[in-house]
Amino acid sequence: MISDKITPEALAKKITKQAKAAGFDVVAFTGVNMAERDKNALFEMVDENRHGKMQWMEDKADWRKSPISLWDDVKSVVILGMNYGPKIDPMLKNNLLDIANISAYAQNRDYHDLIKKRLKQIARWLVEETNCQLKVFTDTAPVLEKALAARTSIGWQGKHSNIVSREYGSWLFLGEIFTTLELPISDVEIDNCGNCSACIDICPTKAIIAPYKIDARRCISYLTIEYNGHIAEEFRKPIGNRIYGCDDCLAVCPWNKFGQITTMPDFIPRDDLTNKKLTSFLMLHDQEFRTLFSKSPVKRIKRDKFIRNILIATGNSGDSSVATINKIISLINDPAAIVRAMAIWALKQLLPNQQFIKLKDKYMARENDYDVKAEWHI
């Protein structure tokens, strides 16, 4: 048990030491008051419907106003970051149109599981030492974690809205410990984006509508992960070969030149998800999908959305081989409407009009879903 006489500063050093031993790369401390601009940005996003179909953002917006809104007894917040810096620039895959392009954070284990486990490890130690109360979070509760992190020395919120670190660029996973302990508040890192607009300029769907302002409805990460419906046609070509998330706005950040490649084995890309052909995923059934992605964040989108995304990417691949076309045709009869619709769209991209019309004459009359039927029209 740590002595009651230990200073908050000394306790913060002990917490930092424990966190580093648990694998976290950065640790900082902040209070429970949120900046008005962060609260306003949240409610503005909801009021303008820029959160899309993420209803939980709207339903729990009041909880996000400050840590106290989530837990009355919280006195301090420990912010922890873990580096997942990729070895290879993720944007290099954008040009490999026949390759399945999965976001850098999702090419191995689900970071939620890893970080939560290590947060709990620190939490157990801290409770044993101080008898405090606490709660741990990692992107699993209505916490404005990026805004909280930006109130510390860890980094600042870049114009892409994600945390940018002097040491790790744009590649930090965040976790938080809310505690009843009174801990010292860290210095605040200034915003070092300056006049740079690289992240805004690179976005394939123009989802960063202004500096620090995102329209999720246009974001490829939202469309391929969060959105359950038929992806609007205007976004399908810009999606390219991205089947789960998008790293462009992160990868282009100039601060990444100071970043470091992760040494965490669970963040190093799996061999069976590296440079995999899109067509190798096309015929995945539900059980095969769940087995392949059982410990991966990709599992959260489930098989139907995954195949929808694969079909969009295949439609953009230019691969009109007989084998690929036959696989796509077989998905015209898939039970999921979002799969059938994108199978039709992919065929429309890859086949000459005459061949596409022959398929239309054969299959369109069997379709009862209005949105799927609409995809047959040229």
Considering the chains and any ligands shown, give keywords for the structure:
378 residues, alpha+beta, four-stranded antiparallel beta sheet
Describe this structure in words.
This protein has a 4-stranded antiparallel sheet with strand order 1-2-7-4. Helix 12 packs parallel to helix 14. The chain has 378 residues and is an alpha+beta fold. The protein is elongated. The chain has 16 helices and 10 strands.
Structural class: alpha+beta
Rg over C-alpha atoms, rounded to the nearest angstrom? 23 Å
Global geometry:
elongated
SSE sequence, one letter per element:
HEHHHEEHEHEEEHEEHHEHHHHHHH
Beginning-to-end CA distance, first to last residue: 72 Å
Helix content: 25-40%
Query: Low-confidence parts, pLDDT < 50 over ≥5 residues?
Result: none
Instruction: Describe the main β-sheet briefly.
Output: 4 strands, antiparallel
Spatially, the strands of the biggest sheet line up as 1-2-7-4
Percentage of β-strand residues: 5-15%
Would you spell out the secondary-structure blueprint of this structure?
Blueprint: H1 8-21, E1 26-30, H2 36-47, H3 55-59, H4 67-70, E2 76-83, E3 101-102, H5 111-130, E4 134-137, H6 145-149, E5 156-157, E6 163-164, E7 172-179, H7 198-202, E8 208-210, E9 213-214, H8 220-226, H9 233-239, E10 242-244, H10 248-251, H11 286-292, H12 302-317, H13 322-330, H14 337-350, H15 353-363, H16 370-374
Parallel strand pairs: 3-10
Antiparallel strand pairs: 1-2, 2-7, 4-7, 5-6, 8-9
Helix pairs in contact: 12-14
